[in-house]
User: Fold this.
Amino acid sequence: MLITVLTACSSRDDHDHPNLKTGADLFNHHCAECHGEEGTGKLVSQTPANILTRRSRDGIAKYITTSVNPQREMPVFSTMPYSEAIAIASHLLILQQLYEATPNNMKKPQVLMIAP
Ligand code: HEC
Assistant:
């Protein structure tokens, strides 16, 4: 049982994936399962949209790789190389810019599933 649990966790925080190069690839691999490929959140896992974060690129990378909050539900990717976290954070900020570039009175390209 314990082995199953450890395997399930390490598959998320496993960074032996030379075929994944862009921030989008890495985001889709590590984050989309919960947040969706567009960062709009997922009803099925009750995960909030992360494209609405107010954190900076560095702030997002630190949020991915470290946590001091015992209440936090999101896994800490403690073995993720910082450069990978920065590439993912850059991709998330691009998704955010696409979202915010659309005025509120127009149809957003992405629909928020779960607001934070
Ligand atoms: C197992 C599901 C899960 C995965 C995988 C996951 N997250 Fe999250 N994320 C959450 C949850 C749940 C929250 C809401 C905060 C909390 O309770 O942990 C969250 C919150 C966030 C936030 C908002 C933080 C804030 O306060 O501004 C950001 C940004 C974020 N996630 C980015 C990511 C990125 C980038 C990845 C991939 C490296 C990722 N998440 C992977 C579940 C997940």
